[in-house]
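hi! just following up on the protien thing from before. the input was this:
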Amino acid sequence: MTSPFGRVARGGKSIYGAPLGILMLEARFPRIPGDMGNGETWPFPVLFRVVRGATPERVVLQGARGLLPDFIAAAQELVALGAEAITTNCGFLSLFQRELAEAVGVPVATSSLMQVPWVQAMLPPGQRVGIVTVSRSSLTAAHLAAAGVPADTPVAGTEGGREFFRVLIAAEKDDLDIGLAEQDILEAGRALVGAHPEVGAIVLECTNMPPYAAALREAVGRPVYDIYSMVSWFQAGLRPRRFNSLNPL
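and the predicted 3d structure came back as:
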């Protein structure tokens, strides 16, 4: 049936205007602007869903063992609400990429690490992508393979820093010294390019690192990509920009 006025609204969802769903870890550390879990980070609406029991310790240090059913259930809830695509707020969840995509039937991008092959394709011959992660010792070959990342990709972590790893993973504190956290990221990035001068661009694994990406770019003189760059690209496909039709000059 067609409306005589030519305008018919169609339903089928619970929430509209927010096509991207984000699966969140259960954590209490501060999420400053730029952090994936801060709603003000995004210039478009998103849907958040916290996966209870999925603490940073369990996901990063314990390989997210036993949590797949919980992430699938949470992703399905987001899709039922109205999400047309799913992402997550931990790069270590690349381990669940295939299973989540199979379970929800919409596009899924679990990890910032999925950008590594894209960035590599853009670099000049002789240059490589490097990774900065919150925990180098926890980032296994399985995590890399699930994101399509070569096993020999150079990686540096923040475990040796004073603030970032301690607050987010080791002890999970309620307060964060932003200046110290930034220094941890910069030191990891400098160590990466110092040990691997062939690194021509950096991908940040951790979704809490975007607030420090600009400072890292200035410090190492290389392009830096993170979950913000990936999700912005992801969203652009869900809602392509409409351009006004212009007559040729």
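Residues 78 and 224 are 30 Å apart (CA to CA).
The chain has a mean pLDDT of 93.
cheers
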